[in-house]
Design a protein that fits this description.
By secondary structure, the chain is an alpha/beta fold. It has seven helices and nine strands. It has a single domain, classed as P-loop containing nucleotide triphosphate hydrolases (Rossmann fold, 3-Layer(aba) Sandwich), CATH 3.40.50.300. The strands form two sheets. It has a five-stranded parallel beta sheet with strand order 2-7-1-8-9, with helices on both faces. A four-stranded mixed beta sheet has the order 4-3-6-5.
Amino acid sequence: MKKNILVISAPSGGGKTSVINHILSDYPIFNFSISTTTRPKRTDEIHGQHYYFINNKEFQNKIHNNDFIEFEKIFNNYYGTQHQEIQRILNLNKIPIFDIDVKGAYAIQKHYPNNSLLIFLKPPSLDILKQRLTNRNTETNKEINLRLQRAELEINMSNNFNYILINDNLEQLLQQIHTIIKKYFFQ
């Protein structure tokens, strides 16, 4: 069955950004779904391109107004997908591609059960994931340990994804992704 929503999920450091960037460059029909967050903007991030950055009060108001398809508090910051973001992409005649956590992926699937395809990128091991997080030099050891704990939770929750792909070789992973995209989005 043809799909029109693609969700990519993985633990932090699992390769979501690399995979999504390849998909966006290879398939112009996809458009990145921009999440809303309360976390501080990093120096290289742009509001409205990487995230919609808002404060806690604004986020709470949006929760109260049912503006989110899904949202979650992760590491003391809120993240969520607004209904209007999907509409923005559909108005462009594009296919939304999501970079969200496991719970968010299931929320998208619940709202769009026949339209969404969920792919989980699983690290080869938690040790390799720890090394990837360490090599990024963006988190403290404490933050890395919190991300590893969350990674275990997400891996254990990923069993209902359409595909679980091991990310141990980027080129092989991208070949698998291309095969899946052609099967479900270009029939």
